[in-house]
Amino acid sequence: MSSQSQPSHALRVSSPSTRALLAGGVAGTVVDMSLYPIDTLKTRLQSAAGFSASGGFRGIYAGVGSALVGSAPGAALFFVTYDGVKMGFARQREGSGRPSAENGGWSEPLEHMLAASAGEIAACAMRVPTEVVKQRAQAAQQSSSVAALRHILAQRGSIGLGGVWRELYRGWGITVIRELPFTMIQFPLWEIMKGWRSKGTGRHGVSAAESGLFGSLAGAVAAAATTPLDVLKTRMMLAKEKQAAVPLFMAILRESGPNAFFAGLVPRILWISAGGALFLGSYQLAYNTMIGIT
Q: What is the rounded CA–CA span in Å between residue 268 and residue 193?
């Protein structure tokens, strides 16, 4: 018997929701802290001010405090929602007698798309404010994530509490628009590859290394496809005044041409490919540990 399939009673957690919550928190923290410098370089490449003016290679951990605060809760929210919706769909499918993807069914990948979409919308409630604060520090608009947050909060007198709220959630719409296609590509691919591997080996589930490899491949595909939306989201969050997505898109196209929408493509693919491996590998490791597989 392989080491991946040997049961252990250490750290067993019986509740699926609790497993998803804890494993998601671990995964979010691991990936964001490990790959933060690449994320900073990608943000600076996409900034309208230019790479050098936004800090270049200096201070690549600027804004890390915001990412540290938001990583675990955002990922935990995602996986709790994703697993909950996915299991609900699975119960419905099994009750109706529809086949799974492994047996030629088409509904299971669609279920994964919808579950991932619900998870991303939930996660964005935590992710967007931390992204706004983090990216302003990364692009050298403020000296740190604390300074960026203070700058936003200090505007309460002129724009009111509602204005501060809107400022913290600037780019919410484009973030959701970017993340939904990304997760609708990445997670069904990840689940399909895991199912294929489980069927081929005859094991229940996959190892952390296998999950990480499949997450990396799926993430690379999704990252390349959604880079233009990522550029647009970054420009919206870094703009000195709030801008609507369509006029900003047209302005970038007019002033910089279509190539601008692929700025930071290589760092984004490298970052998300490595991130997919760390994120879904560490998630699987934590999850397997909690169900007694080591």
A: 22
72, two tokens:
């675990």
What phi and psi values does residue 214 have, to the nearest 5 degrees? -65, -35
Using the 8-state DSSP alphabet, how is residue 7 labeled? B
* Residue 281 CB neighbour total at 10 angstroms: 23
The residues near 249 (Cβ < 8 Å, ≥ 6 apart) are 232
**Phi, psi (degrees; rounded to nearest 5) at 184:** -70, -15
pLDDT in tens, 89-131: 988 887 776 666 555 456 888 999 999 999 999 998 888 898 8
Q: Note the pLDDT tens digit of each residue in 254-267.
A: 998 999 898 889 98
Q: Find how far residue 9's CA is from the centre of its chain.
A: 31
Cα separation, 175 vs 73, whole angstroms:
17
Cβ atoms of 192 and 203 within 8 Å: the answer is no
CA pair distance 15, 239, nearest whole angstrom: 43
Secondary structure, 3-state, 87-105: HHHHHHHHHHCCCCHHHCC
**What stretch of H or E contains 113?**
helix 107-138
d(CA 139, CA 85): 37
Spatial CB neighbours of 183, under 8 Å, sequence gap ≥ 6? 113, 116, 117, 119, 120, 222
Q: How far apart are CA 63 and CA 31, in angstroms?
A: 16
The model carries a pTM of 0.76
Q: Which residue's structure tokens are 């490919």?
A: 273
